[in-house]
Structure formats: structure tokens, C-alpha cells
Amino acid sequence: MQWDGILQNLLSAAVFTALGMLLFVISFFVFDKITPYSLWKELIEEHNTALAIVIGSISLGMCLIIAMAVH
């Protein structure tokens, strides 16, 4: 068994995972700044379920785009 190849694949997966998560966090903060109100305040304090569904859908969409770009 070639351990070098396995370790290289694990390292690549870890790097791409970290890169994807970083891009997602950056894109979420940019989206938060674009909106005219605070997303966290609306979600946590106001319990806005409709906004939570929209944010979840946007998050899934951004994750799919980032995953395809990184892959």
C-alpha cells in the first residue's frame, strides 16, 4: 500500500475543505453586509422563520457553487 499517496490525498482534501469553508464564511459575511438589516438580529431575536429558510437555501446554493469551483 502506498502511504504517500494516501497522505497526499488526505492533505489535499483538508486543504480544499478549509478553502471551501473560508470562502463560504466570506460570502456569508458579504451577503450580511449587502442586506439592509442585521441577519443575526432577525434570526436570533425576532425568530424570523421565513428568513431562516431563505438564508439556508442561499447557504446551500453558495456551498454547491464553492464545491464545484474547488472540485
The protein's oligomeric status is single chain
Number of helices: 3
Can you give the helix content as a percent range? over 70%
Overall number of structural domains: 1
> What structural class do the secondary elements suggest?
mainly alpha
Radius of gyration: 17 Å
Tertiary shape: elongated
Provide mean pLDDT, rounded. Answer: 84
Low-confidence stretches: none
What is the topological layout?
Layout: H1 3-34, H2 39-45, H3 49-70
Helix pairs in contact: 1-3
Walk me through what this model shows.
The protein is mostly helical. The chain has one domain. It contains three helices and no strands. Helix 1 crosses helix 3. 0% of the residues are buried. The mean pLDDT is 84.
Protein traits:
71 residues; mainly alpha; 3 helices; single chain; 86% helix
At a glance:
Helices cover 86% and strands 0% of the residues.
